[in-house]
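Closing statement on the flavin-adenine dinucleotide sub-project.
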Amino acid sequence: MGYLDLDTVLCRRLCKLQQTAREFGMQVVRPAGIKLDKFTDPKDTLAPGSPLWAVFKGFRELGLHKAMIPKAFGGTLGDYPSLATPLINEQMGYADGGLSISLLVSTMPFAFAVLSPHKEVRNWAREYVEDKSASMIGCWAITEPDHGTDWVMGTSSAGCDPCTAPGLTAVKKGDEYIINGWKSAWVSNGTIATHAVLHVGLDSSRGVHGSGIALCPLHLPGISRGAPLNKIGQRPLNQGEIIFDEVKMPAKYMLLAVPGFFGANLFGHTFLGLANSSMGVTFASQAQASFDEALFFAKNNTLNGTSLVQRPDIKIRLFRMFAKVEAARLLARKVSDHFFGLLSPPLVGAATKRQITFWALGKALNAYFTAFDRYEKVRQISKNITHPDESTGMMDWGKYGVLSKITATETAVEVAGQAMQIFGEKALSPDCVIDKMFRDARSSTIEDGVNDALAIASCEGL
Ligand SMILES: Cc1cc2nc3c(=O)[nH]c(=O)nc-3n(C[C@H](O)[C@H](O)[C@H](O)COP(=O)(O)OP(=O)(O)OC[C@H]3O[C@@H](n4cnc5c(N)ncnc54)[C@H](O)[C@@H]3O)c2cc1C
């Protein structure tokens, strides 16, 4: 059973990019992930000479890290067709789910930096593109010890409840924000990141809706890190808490400073939808990897002199796995392509040569949210509504991202479980790669929002 690439639009450039990512994935990322998974102390993952650094550096030397940075900043977004980033994520996910996420979140602060009105911040995007030694690593710091699902539910009307307010707060004093609080031990790249997309509480009376988004360099005095997290799945993915104690962050690093439901909803549509759609391609592809392992095993092992793959029960099992993988893979690719298509023309297309378009957009977003928030307050006071915010849950883009993430991650768990069944007792040996794939897949149904919570938040307003 082989895969046809049903995507007929793959041009020669995309095929070449896909091939480059595949070779790097199978020659460097897969073996690195298998080695890192076996390290008993997660600190060893970060030691000089650890395979983790070969993955980061190799990815950058090939220029694969540029895919989400617009062409105007030296990246390839808007230069390649929108399918380029999903194709890279697919290949990384096929090689190793956890390392794929590490590479993905590493780009986030630098991809958002292009929207800053401040030249210094915008320049981070260009510096990141040129950074071959992985001295700039990003993370997405949102989850807190007491607020995980609250962020997901915050995209709905539940997010205006003050008890959902982030514990990490940013208070403006002059031209600085004073930041206090913790981001949880589950922040991917948490102990190695140099920059964070940092979600902060600006107005706790408005719950999650009272939050803003900073692009925070993590070398500022008062920032410390926890130990690298030990866990059963996606072990090669570095995770750890980030602690802020009276951190004075220059105000220019605050990207979105306007609390209000529209900002929370924007988070639902774009950030979470985009992140979830990338999780979709990553884990649909991880499901494909489990299927391929099972097929290879069935073809190369016999039972009472008959090849396993000739047994009708194994044939049926394999075909059902194949059907699920293909369905998840096609959905995930379509949704992710759609998201990156939204970022391409007219936004990137019109701005490929002019960085100014991006900061104008960043400024316009803040101005728009401020105006919208004022309008909402007036409207709600006049209607005498007790809760200051109302929202209708994620709109359609976000829902499709969630759909793709849930389908892909649940397929990855199921297919890896079925593959274990085909391997039989050999699946339980620590040297069998399928056990790792199962553990990695299982973690993905919690990562980026627990699947059930994502579904509930998406259904609001139906
Ligand atoms: C591999 C991995 C990578 C991750 N990477 C990152 C990262 O890069 N950055 C980051 O910030 N975080 C990251 N996380 C954290 C992740 O986003 C959270 O674990 C997730 O959002 C769930 O939060 P929680 O673990 O606090 O669960 P809780 O919020 O404590 O939820 C526990 C259970 O209660 C249910 N529940 C809670 N509240 C509700 C509700 N209101 N309605 C219905 N059900 C509810 C949930 O569905 C869940 O089943 C990562 C997690 C994993 C596993």
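Confidence is low (pLDDT under 50) at residues 383-394. With this model delivered, the sub-project is considered complete and its resources will be redirected to Aim 3.
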